[in-house]
Amino acid sequence: MTYSKITGLGFYVPENVVTNQDLTQFMDTSDEWIRERTGIRERRYFTYGKDTNAGMAAAASRMALERAGLQARDVELIVYATITPDYFFPGSGFLMQRELGLEGIGVIDIRDQCSGFVYALSIADQFIKTGMYKTILVVGSEIQSSWINKSNEGRGVAVIFGDGAGAAVLQATEDPEHRILSTHLHADGRYAEDLYVRDPGSSRPGRSATKEMVDEGGFDVIMNGNAVFKHAVVRFSEVIGEALEANGLRPEDIALLVPHQANIRISEYVRQQLNLPEDRVANNIQKYGNTTAASIPIALTEAWEQGRVKPGDLVCMAAFGSGFTWASALIRW
Ligand code: COA
């Protein structure tokens, strides 16, 4: 039986650090408000002319490949998650493929928002288990800062998000002990408009982007923060429980939980539900904010670099986001 396992991890964040205090230049907010409600102290914003969505992803991927002891040419497929691509289309996965010199291999471009990385990992896992590919690059990359509305109207959303990229190399293994145990994907489109960007959409007649759309705020992220919060705490716990149950495991077996970095209060609530000690949950939202599809691979890579992920450890990734989507992955490292 063929399984898949993560053999290399990498991440990239832009150099430009933007503190909560820095945000007060653009909007009526405060360090205290942001820290108390979200846990965030600072985030990274890309530098125009230096960082791109695909470029950041390529940097993260190179690091992951080097740590896996592989060359870029060993990669057979790219699964790339982002909701902030360089172009409206084609997706940034193609631009990263070009940058890595991998012309010819397949690229699967997905969105799936804050659950994007876990969805991407699940897709890659299936391709490896069927025997179609042996080495797949799984990527999450976002540039939120060029998109979000940094004025007073957008402050409820703007303070949360940041930029960055993370990547994992997934390889085939016959070892039943050290591998991805299972992945679990869910969505509920009834809540699509509780966290969304309407434009440039194809649902209305005329050109897909007009000045009116900008003036109406169609390009802004609209978020019902309360609804997101309430659903997130339930779904996180549910989907982690589902993964444990599928494998006959219990919460106390988790060596490291890597939740999507949405809000420190959400992660803290989930940690308490599972009765896990603080050191078994990866949290870096304080430094990077919510980097959407990039948040889990960045947090996992940092935890791995800190020696918090060791062979034999049970690692659980869990995500919740726009869609609504939620997902989990359980790995025996
Ligand atoms: N700075 C200062 N004040 C702000 C602010 C900001 N950045 N954003 C909003 N406010 C104000 C509001 O205008 C409101 O003022 P009012 O009481 O005078 O009307 C007040 O703060 C409370 O706003 P509210 O939206 O009710 O705050 P909240 O306690 O619900 O926290 C979130 C807002 C966004 C932090 C919270 O809802 C949340 O974390 N939701 C989950 C979001 C999330 O995780 N999204 C990513 C999903 S993957």
Strand content bin: 15-25%
Outline the low-pLDDT stretches.
Answer: none
- Category by helix and strand content: alpha/beta
The CATH homologous superfamily of the largest domain corresponds to Thiolase/Chalcone synthase
Which CATH architecture of the largest domain would you pick? 3-Layer(aba) Sandwich
Quaternary organization: single chain
According to CATH, the fold-level topology of the largest domain is Peroxisomal Thiolase, Chain A, domain 1
Number of helices: 11
Gap between N and C termini, in Å? 18 Å
What is the CATH class of the largest domain?
Alpha Beta
Which percent bin holds the helix content? Answer: 25-40%
SSE order, one letter for each helix or strand: EEHHEHEHEHEHEEEHEHEHHHEE
Shape: globular
* Average of per-residue pLDDT values: 96
Number of strands: 13
Instruction: Give the C-alpha Rg.
Output: 19 Å
